[in-house]
Amino acid sequence: MNIDKTTLSDSIEYLLSDFFDTVVSRNCHPEEVKMRWCSKIIDIFNLDIDTQQLYDIRIKCEAAICQSNLDKSGELEFKYNELLALMLNILRTNLSLNLSKELFLSLSKKIELDIEKNVQHLNKDVVRFFEKNKKNNTKIYIISDFYMDADFIQELAKHHCISHLIDEYFTSADFLKTKRSGNLYDAILKERNIKPTSAYMIGDNIHSDVDMSRMRDIHALHIPRDFSHYEKSLKIAKHNPKVKKNLLKTLRAKEFDFYWMAIPLFIFIAKLHNRLIQDQAKNVIFLAREGEFLKEIFDIYNESYPIAGIKTHYMYASRRGTYLPSLRPLKDEDFSKLLNQYSDMSLNVFIDSLGLADFLPELESDLKHINFTIPQTDFKNSAALLQLLESKSFKKVYEEERKNRRQYLESYVDKLVGKEDLYLVDVGWKGSIQDNIHSALNRPVTGYYCGILRGAHSTSENNKHGLLFHEMANEENLDSVYNEFRASYEVFCSASHGSLIEYTSAPKFGILEENEAELKIFSKHIRPLQLNLRKLLEELIYMKNNNALSISEIEAILKPVYEKSVFLPKTSEMNSFAKLEHYENFGVFEFSSFDAGSSNRLTYIKSLVSNPKHTVGREWWKPLGFKNNRCGFLKYPYFMFKKSIMSKK
Hints:
Layout: E1 14-17, E2 24-26, H1 30-45, H2 51-73, H3 80-95, H4 101-119, E3 120-122, H5 124-134, E4 139-144, H6 150-159, E5 168-171, H7 172-175, H8 183-191, E6 199-203, H9 206-214, E7 219-222, H10 228-238, H11 240-252, H12 262-278, E8 283-287, H13 291-303, E9 311-315, H14 319-326, H15 336-339, H16 347-353, H17 360-366, H18 383-390, H19 392-417, E10 422-429, H20 432-441, E11 445-452, E12 462-472, E13 475-477, H21 486-492, E14 500-503, E15 510-512, H22 516-545, H23 551-567, H24 571-578, E16 581-586, E17 588-593, H25 601-610, H26 612-617, H27 622-628, H28 635-646
Parallel strand pairs: 1-4, 1-6, 4-5, 6-7, 8-9, 8-10, 10-11, 11-12
Antiparallel strand pairs: 2-3, 12-13, 14-15, 16-17
Helix pairs in contact: 1-2, 1-4, 2-3, 3-4, 12-13, 12-22, 12-23, 13-22, 14-19, 14-20
């Protein structure tokens, strides 16, 4: 019978309805929900296990609990929390997982709810039937054989905007009684004092929804559904080589120059999302300028997991802009961070690095006998610097601006996230902007980066994580693939605006340097690439969300593509990168060119033989460096050499 043509008699007071495949249907097999849940659990808790193994554990745990309940009460059913508790015990034993039960249960349920929301759609025929009967004041109850509690089903109803139609929710897990046995009907009829002939049941399962309700004198209607797509979907999901092929096909269908940069960016935002959930961070700040594009692509990923509740913010920041607010009173300050890194410098560059260029005329007037433009060797011990630091005008400007800008920075951060602990994101290397913010604000800061290099300072109150590569004392996650082409992260994630010069008062909070040449490079070369990468990332995210693969499993598929592309790039990629420039605005103020001056081929080879580490290490991108020095053929042995090293890790 067609439900749209069905009219309930006036004697019917209660409309009972199944939920899954009646009110809603899934676009995948129900078991795929569990498989995808397993992949996400692996991601979030960083489990050293593959999706199939965790899925097998879950299925065995479900079966064990069902058998136990069958022995006790005659019902093949289980409660979700019982399942999670048993799985957690197994993971603690097998994987030495150190995790609170409360956190595991909370996140696991949120993940399953989120996946269910993503795979479901409403069946409009049943919704129309609900709406028609609701007008007659018929009470509508959802009755589902499901391992989750009634609250879970209610959350799904809210998601589909139909909760206003439903009066109550009942699940087999809450009662440990099922429709399949008929005992759940008996329990609900008794608990709600419902006369069976005043109730009408609808559902897709002939036995559980129709036959068992009719045996209790409840009127019933079968809602036929087509389940053929479930088996097709499950067959593909369980056929890993086909999933792998589809993933690579998605990637290679977009083979524009540097398409392979989508791989580390995808792995980074996925690992970042998982880490933020682990750390229970609710507000995360992406630092300018590379953070602009990182935030843009992270937001796409984050939107597909709304249960995480992560809010993202963008903050203007630079080494120059955060440096002065981080400094101590002048009598205690040695400027070591700046002066130890840049030994040769002019007074102009020093003052500009402090963000005090607007005060240059005043300072030059006070120190007329000093040339501010001439670079000084061993600048930190120069007479020019000593005289500047002793001048009354510099002392006054330094102290006033240091205090003001620290206050502006504090107000800016408070406007973004209040007084919460800070969670920052940037491309990285040593996290100096994070250090400056921590010093200026004296509050706990955690930074997440594409990579962290040796020399970075990290403490419990100022913690740093390199999610693609991480080199620190006694800590190494030295993936030389992602560490091979660091310049790409800075260049391809550049921003639509200039660098922060200084912090100022609300509502502007900052003054930016608008470098026309830099912005021209961005609009002409970088932004078009970013848009292409974004489209490809959207497809990879879709593939991730619609397949039961953990990030580590996806990385294992995609990483060889990146590896080959970064070591053996196309000529067009090297040529286009060679034309780009990167602007430095702290310690030095100039463009860095990637098309560095070449040496004679023989001279380069001699240098390579005598000091290979230095010769190769100074190149921004090794294949381009070989090409610039007329030794392009060296990229092949270099690739084999690096592969041999990486295979040992």
